[in-house]
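ARCHIVE CARD
Drawer: 12
Card no.: 0347
Subject: one protein chain, sequence and derived structure
Cross-reference: see card 0346
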Amino acid sequence: MKGSATLLDHGFFERSPTVCARELIGCRLEWQGCAGVIVETEAYEAAGDAACHAHVRPSARRFIDEHEAGTAYVYLNYGVHWLFNLLVKGGERDGFVLFRALEPVSGLPRMKRRRHREAEVDLCSGPGKLTKALGIDGALHGVPVLQSRRFSLCRETALHQTEPIACRRVGISRAVNRKWRFVRAESSCLSVRPGAE
């Protein structure tokens, strides 16, 4: 890591999901040699959020009870795309942060092979694209990834040039008006542009 990069640990995720989701924008995520800058996240709260898995799935509530902050919560969406979340626990509210989009910065040849795409803006511009590009699947579910040498999340101060914008979450049918999606508005790698929800 270069410059003033700070490696995030499970303490980062011992706060509310919205705080974590906002502050992850601009951080660098690396998994097994592929990396990108996080440009889009979504927050989900375990209590009172009808769009959160914990609202309708007992297994999600058990997951929160049985795992520590920063554990990977990975599920298959509509039987097609793996979606990657990290558990937020121990702060004011428990829940999850969904990683929706990255700007690729390393490991691009591998990402392009996995995605069968050449354009960098299309490699990780959505939560299902992101997991496919990074090679993340259900095997990562329940893994305390912050303790893994193959995974890292770090904050690099040079990357924090603009404040994230809060906008409505997408791809859900409940609690749609909560502005719990956070984006780096100038990024060309977003899944959905702000205002186009």
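Annotation on reverse: The CA atoms of residues 36 and 104 lie 4 Å apart. The two ends are 35 Å apart (CA to CA).
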